[in-house]
Design goal:
alpha/beta, two-stranded parallel sheet, disordered N terminus, globular, 8 strands
Length: about 140
């Protein structure tokens, strides 16, 4: 009888450990702390984008990216209807686009295809009127 109780206690402890391991932890890494600009699926371009509580839209934040910017993309579903040109930085100060880490950021593109053989959502090359489309880092 004592052996059966001991086995049941061990099973209960093992199940509790498994439950806490799988359910007690977040599926996401800690949120980013090096952000200088924020974008959210429900962002507003009337916001300054300087805090997670006042994010811009993805396109609005992208328009402000430059050398040394760390644009954190908050979790949510982003509906894009036009392609985005990623802004670059410099050799000593990359422009960084990264996941904020609170939940997945899902990009849904419903815009027209520029090339019939592919769908271009993001471009990192410079149109003739742009300079500095190099030195881009995308994380997450």
């Amino acid at each position: 009888m004592l052996k059966v109780i001991r086995l049941n206690v061990i099973r209960i402890l093992a199940l509790a450990f498994l439950f806490l391991t799988l359910v007690g932890k977040s599926n996401y890494a800690a949120v980013a702390t090096d952000c200088t600009l924020y974008a959210a699926a429900n962002g507003n371009d009337g916001n300054n984008g300087l805090t997670a509580g006042a994010p811009k839209t993805l396109n609005g934040a992208n328009n402000l990216v430059g050398a040394g910017t760390v644009l954190c993309v908050e979790g949510g579903t982003y509906n894009l209807t036009t392609r985005m040109f990623l802004h670059g930085g410099s050799a000593s100060a990359y422009a960084v686009y990264k996941a904020y880490g609170d939940s997945p950021a899902n990009i849904v593109f419903t815009g027209p295809s520029v090339n019939p053989d592919s769908v271009e959502i993001f471009n990192a090359y410079a149109p003739s009127f742009w300079t500095g489309a190099n030195y881009i880092e995308v994380r997450g």
